[in-house]
Amino acid sequence: MRQLLPHAVAEVDPLDLYLADSREAHDQRPWLMVNMIASIDGATAVDGVSGGLGGPGDKAVFRAVRASCDWVLVASGTAAAEHYRMPRTSPELTARRREYGRPPAPNLAIVTASGHVDPGIPALSARSVDDPRPVVITGTAADRDALDRLDADVIELASERPEPDAVLAALGQRGADVVLAEGGPQFNGILHAAGVIDEFCVSISPMLVGAESARIIAGGPGDPAPMRLVRLLEDDGALFARYVRA
């Protein structure tokens, strides 16, 4: 993998780059990263999931981005569609994370307004005994019976729906300085409308998909948010851009 910006480097390790990036938590909430992949023509999924867009370079960057956070945050629909598992790290990666003050592995938080989270998601149904319990974050309108059936710690916020600022503050209270949101597009739209996205990492897959697919940020109001390109990597035709709020 090579770096194109901010200056050309013939060979880089994305893990070294992303771990060393500066991310300062806010007074009331953690720093929020978003990481997504899209095709050249803007598709975020092939046959309903993002895996068909990725390659070896994307896997390396995905690993590096996840290595840089304390918590992974995902909407319940994406968690079900992508068969989410608890984030895990190798002994080598655990040691690298500890060098930068991160816990051994990120924990997982699933956001739901309805409370209807698929209990068959591997993160809920196939956890290792060494895995921490995932967290489900919801609001007062959620189906309490459905939540009680989940093998997870439930955080019920005071609002009817789980609002982004309150979601992030709740994770901050659990020790998070950096939170990584992994979608889906509708949830990204909610985060954008709330103005809480500090960093956007996007992988551009060298593919034309052509099928109907949601944009990276879909639905919801929100003022345009200027972002500043701070790094661009390339591997086998795929581009990996890191933007921060301008």
Q: Return the string of H and E elements.
A: EHEHEHHEHEHEHEHEEE
Strand content: 15-25%
Secondary structure tally, helices: 8
Name of the CATH class: Alpha Beta
Helix content: 25-40%
Q: How far is the N terminus from the C terminus? A: 26 Å
Contiguous uncertain segments of 5+ residues: none
Give a short account of the largest sheet: 10 strands, mixed
Structural class: alpha/beta
Label the overall shape. Answer: globular
Strand arrangement within the widest β-sheet reads 1-9-10-8-2-7-3-4-5-6
CATH T-level topology: Dihydrofolate Reductase, subunit A
Q: What's the pLDDT, averaged over the residues?
A: 94
Radius of gyration: 17 Å
CATH architectural type:
3-Layer(aba) Sandwich
How many domains?
A: 1
| DSSP, total strands | 10
CATH superfamily: Dihydrofolate Reductase, subunit A
Description:
This protein has helices spanning 14-20, 56-67, 76-81, 91-99, 122-125, 144-148, 164-173, 185-194, and strands at residues 2-5, 31-39, 71-75, 107-111, 135-138, 153-156, 178-181, 199-205, 227-235, 238-245. It is of the alpha/beta class and 246 residues long. It has a single domain (2-20, 27-245), classed as Dihydrofolate Reductase, subunit A, CATH 3.40.430. A ten-stranded mixed β-sheet has the order 1-9-10-8-2-7-3-4-5-6, with helices on both faces. Strand 9 (227-235) and strand 10 form a beta hairpin. Helix 1 (14-20) packs parallel to helix 2. The protein is globular and about 55 Å long.
